[in-house]
Amino acid sequence: MKRIMLIVAYDGTDYHGWQLQPGVPTIEGELNKALTALLGEEIQVIGASRTDSGVHALCNAAVFDTDTKIPAQKIAYALNQRLPEDIRIQKSKETEPDFHPRHCASRKTYEYRILNREFPLPTKRRYAHFTYVPLDEEKMRQAAGYLKGEHDFMSFCASAAVVETTVRTLYELEVIRDGEEIILRVCGSGFLYNMVRIIAGTLMEVGRGNIEPEKMQEILQAKDRSAAGPTAPACGLTLVRYEWQQPFGKVSDVL
Question: For the chain, what is the mean pLDDT?
Fold first, then answer.
């Protein structure tokens, strides 16, 4: 028995998130189905990040155990022949037998893209949230500064979430203007349910002038979901980097 790691990229538009759910298409479900058919064994993958419905990824990771004699690095090629076109394995390799992608220290980086122009562009509709209201990225940048570091992010957590603690650490929260797009780049040790999308929705309210940047401190201190802005749509969110502490290295290095 050996443990194989997959680095998975996908367009999440037509899926109900990563996690297996009965009766609806999910990324985990498609991987399980394709691997089971390929290897002739009942396979259940363990995912690193359980992305929400409609969210994309460049480098999510999954592991599974198998008795197959197929070389680990060749599984990616064979599996891509069986997966839908909007899911593609970027690499497959053998890893330590006890490696669990959610049980070791890691850093995740997400990007939320906002298309800020007069009219939408059809080619961007799956991968960026459109708003015609002009956004002040400098004010958004100021507001983002209050969220960096370790805080209780209860105000930025969907009310349905069940977690032991709402304290999280943001290592990086950048607001980058790239032509007609504003990119929010968020790196942290972990994220609460809908946390990045609520941060994005709140920063857009700042950019529109509806919330002053300094009010981010009050929103954090309130520890109340209703104090923050709306949850931004899923289409703009992509998992772009996943890093583990050594000896497992960085997923992003293999892309």
Answer: 93
Question: Which pair of structure tokens corresponds to residue 158?
Answer: 């969907």
Distance CA 228, CA 231 (A): 9
Amino acid at 1: M
Contacts of 236 (CB under 8 A, 6+ apart): 112, 113, 114, 127, 128, 129, 200
Pair 77, 48: CB distance under 8 Å: no
CA distance 72 to 162: 36
Does residue 213 have a cis peptide bond before it, meaning omega lies within 30 degrees of 0? Answer: no
Instruction: Note the residue count of the chain.
Output: 255
Residue with tokens 């680095």: 7
User: What is the predicted pLDDT for the residue at 255?
Assistant: 43
- Given this model, what pLDDT does residue 103 score? 78
- Quick one: which H or E segment has residue 132? none
8 Å CB contact between 138 and 177: no
Distance between CA atoms of 241 and 95, rounded to whole angstroms?
19
Amino acid code (one letter) for 185: R
d(CA 134, CA 206): 11
Q: Which residue has the tokens 């931004």?
A: 232
**CA distances from residue 179 to 121, 183, 239 in whole angstroms, order as listed:** 14, 10, 22
Q: Annotated catalytic sites, by residue? A: 52
In sequence order, the 6+-apart residues with CB closer than 8 A to the CB of 180 are 115, 116, 117
- C-beta separation of 17 from 25 below 8 A: no
Structure tokens at 151: 């805080």
CA 171 to the chain's CA centroid: 16
**Residue 108 has what pLDDT?**
93
